[in-house]
Design brief:
Layout (H helix, E strand, L loop, with lengths): L2 H20 L6 H25 L5 H26 L2 H27 L9 H19 L5 H32 L5
Helix pairs in contact: 1-2, 1-3, 2-3, 2-5, 3-4, 3-5, 4-6, 5-6
Length: 183
């Protein structure tokens, strides 16, 4: 166990705390749950940075980091879909969660084929993640109907567009392995 892995595990521990606070019958729940999600997003960046800087990358960390990220994002989007109760928020949430499932399966399959490098995280994926995190934080911090929540929704649509774009890039890179006879 090392510091990067502890930070990754802390993101998973934050999930029930985040959900519990979000559903408290108090107004400050929005800002506190957004702060918890922000802390989780920062630990996501920090654990990767520390793992590289301190040369503490581990197979366990490489496995758990994307799992923790996807769990936190999926739970936050699910909570927001329930809170907002609108198709306008549900559509980009479904795109984002669906893409995560597809790309996770693709990476797993490509690893079994010995071609995991062709579906490594890309620069567009990092931009997508940043837009997605800022959108979720904004949507969590401001209840439905406020101007800032509308800005968060617009940013979530941008993140969903980047999500589809990055998925297409991953699928294009994996295409020769997925369909070797169609070169």
């Amino acid at each position: 166990m090392n510091i990067p892995n502890i930070l990754t595990l802390s993101r998973i521990v934050m999930i029930p705390v985040f959900v519990g606070i979000y559903y408290l019958p108090v107004e400050w729940r929005y800002l506190v749950s957004a702060a918890i999600f922000t802390l989780a997003a920062v630990t996501d960046w920090l654990d990767g940075y520390l793992a590289r800087k301190l040369d503490q990358s581990t197979p366990f960390g490489a496995f758990l980091d994307p799992v923790a990220d996807k769990l936190m994002v999926a739970v936050a989007l699910t909570v927001l879909v329930e809170e907002y109760g609108s198709v306008a928020l549900t559509l980009p949430a479904v795109v984002i969660i669906g893409r995560e499932i597809v790309i996770s399966a693709l990476r797993e399959w490509m690893a079994e084929m010995g071609s995991r490098a062709s579906v490594a995280v890309s620069y567009i994926g990092k931009i997508k993640t940043t837009a997605q995190m800022v959108a979720i934080i904004t949507l969590l911090a401001f209840p439905p109907g406020l101007l800032w929540s509308t800005a968060g929704l617009v940013l979530l649509y941008i993140a969903a567009g980047l999500t589809l774009w990055s998925m297409m890039l991953y699928l294009k890179a994996a295409w020769p392995d997925l369909f070797p006879d169609q070169g």
